[in-house]
Amino acid sequence: MFDWVRRNDRGKYIFNTYFFRQDNYWMYENHANRTRYGDPLPITSEWRGVPNEPDGYAHVLVLTTENEIVDDAYFFKGKSKDFDI
Q: Looking at the predicted structure, is the pLDDT value of residue 80 above 70?
């Protein structure tokens, strides 16, 4: 499970919680207090390269001194990084 804050196409910040189990995931829409209709979905449908049952997740969101936004996500399984978006 992990929380993810990101901007949508219109520049609005959105906050969702994701749950992973085996080869499926659910997206909990925090603003609506429910899971998204149609969930669960296969991890491979939107999360290319993420292993089944990931062990960990790190979200790096930084505003640099040059006012650039660094927005990276990393999923981990075992001892190596498997996915970078």
A: no
Contact 71, 6 (CB under 8 A): yes
- Residue 44's pLDDT is 85
Considering just the CA atoms, what is the radius of gyration of the chain in Å? 14
d(CA 50, CA 4): 16
Q: What global pTM score does this model have?
A: 0.67
Give yes or no for a contact between 22 and 53, defined as CB atoms under 8 angstroms apart: yes
Task: Determine contact, residues 16/27, Cβ cutoff 8 Å.
Answer: yes
Would you list the DSSP string of 31-79?
Answer: TTTEEPTT--EEHHHHSTTPPSS-SEEEEEEEE-TTSPEEEEEEEEETT
